[in-house]
Amino acid sequence: MYAQASAKIELPSYLPQNPAPFFEGPATPVSFFPAGAEIYAQGEKAGALYQVEFGAVRIYRLLADGRRQISAFHLAGETFGFESDATHHFFAEAINATGVRVFRAPSGTDMSRQLLPLALKGLTRAQEHLLVLGRQNAIERVAAFLVEMSERQGGLQQVELPMSRNDIGDYLGLTIETVSRVLTRLKEKGVIRLLSLRSIEILKRDTLLAMGE
Amino acid sequence: MYAQASAKIELPSYLPQNPAPFFEGPATPVSFFPAGAEIYAQGEKAGALYQVEFGAVRIYRLLADGRRQISAFHLAGETFGFESDATHHFFAEAINATGVRVFRAPSGTDMSRQLLPLALKGLTRAQEHLLVLGRQNAIERVAAFLVEMSERQGGLQQVELPMSRNDIGDYLGLTIETVSRVLTRLKEKGVIRLLSLRSIEILKRDTLLAMGE
DNA sequence: CGTCACGTTGAGTAGATTCAATTGAGGTGG
DNA sequence: CCACCTCAATTGAATCTACTCAACGTGACG
Fold first, then answer.
1. A171: closest CA among A136, A209, A210, A213?
2. How confident is the model at residue B137 (pLDDT cuts 50, 70, 90)?
3. Residues in chain A where the model's pLDDT stays below 70
4. Of the CATH numbers 3.90.1150.10, 1.10.10.10, 3.40.1160.10, 2.40.160.180, which one belongs to the domain with range A136-212?
5. What is the rounded (10 degree) CA torsion for A83, B100, B195, B192?
6. Do A86 and B134 touch (CB under 8 A)?
7. Nearest CA distance, A75 vs chain B (angstrom)
8. Which residue is nearest to nucleotide C17 (CA to C1')?
């Protein structure tokens, strides 16, 4: 739907037409985070930008009673950590062993040109996710998730899920049991195949796409 | 929670520290949209920016079968319409009689410095809304909504709701009936009072805040 | 080979939805 | 200015989807 016509993506006039490469300065070191390690916490002072080198990161928020909503997963190559003020509003954790390049803009540097496209991309993705959480049922949510992960990994048949069922549930606003049941149903319908716990194969892409609308 | 300490909001170093006024050029005309009028549609070519002069706007997406998710409301003073590429991914409609200032940046203009703070603000708001849709029950959602609307109107006791129950439902991922039932319950509990259909008074702000977490 | 965390499956429940009927508010025309 | 009309909102009853709680499997790892 609404397919991008050409290879070259057209941009609105208010965006820089020749986006600058993101990191130009001296090479910044890569920090390593083991599985489950906190990268930053809600309430902490923000300021740095983070680029995933390898592994995967979850961004989430907690309610007082422990309910958790994961607002985004970030895979290799993606940048996260920017905030609208000097405080982090979310938690960021490494899902698996993860390498992250931490970049701190020198005081006074204006990164707007580099950051705006990323912020807009994140905004679009968040808004699309709102539709999933607000108006789709369990099967549709899981289908949309599998399609999203597939597309972010190049649209291959085989999709790697770096995160646990628990993470998937907290991303989709479902319980771990419901996620499991839906995957079983999709498997029984012949839509997907479970290669291993964290690796699935998409057998009927069209069906999956139709489910996720 | 995580209160902003001083009047002057501290910003991360990667943001412009002295944000430029948004519109500097020659005064742009104000377009008028009657209630329900479309401002732009999904799939249309994007490019302009819109600032609400008076009235209110809803931003939404549709599923094939007509289910609708409103991702944001925009009130007087707010800016919307920016996209990550040249296509609108959402619909924008006037909720009531609404005046909108349409601004088209001349080709080649880089509005990053002005837009980034708005995009980041929108991103934060969308991500917070994800928590509401993903992990909160009906009462919590409505409470969070009322608190949000109150704060966006200056934190007064009396809150104007420019939108219908239908719009509220499609924003909160609930049916119109559920929204109505919850409002009745809040009324019975003495938390709010209905001055008219679209105007409520908050009697127990603390209770409401605690419900919305 | 045993342990432990993670995942799956099952039964019963709760909360929100659906469908239907009623009430109420706002706007229009006489 | 009032009566009427229409659409929006509220209320009620029955249903259904996803959740909760519990038991059971399974894969990874020492």
1. A136
2. very high
3. 1-9, 18-27
4. 1.10.10.10
5. -10
6. no
7. 18
8. B175
Could you tell me the pLDDT band of residue B5, with boundaries at 50, 70 and 90? very low
Residue A110: HSE in the Cβ half-sphere, 13 Å Cα cutoff:
14
In terms of C-beta density within 10 A (0-12 exposed, 13-18 middle, 19 or more buried), how is residue A22 classed? middle
- B117–A116 C-beta distance less than 8 A: no
Q: Where in chain A is CATH 1.10.10.10?
A: 136-212
Convert the pLDDT of each residue in B146-195 to its tens digit: 999 999 999 999 999 999 999 999 999 999 999 999 999 999 999 999 99
Angstrom distance, A180 CA to D18 C1': 12
At the topology level, CATH places domain B30-114 in Jelly Rolls (2.60.120)
| Ranges of CATH 2.60.120.10 domains, chain B | 30-114
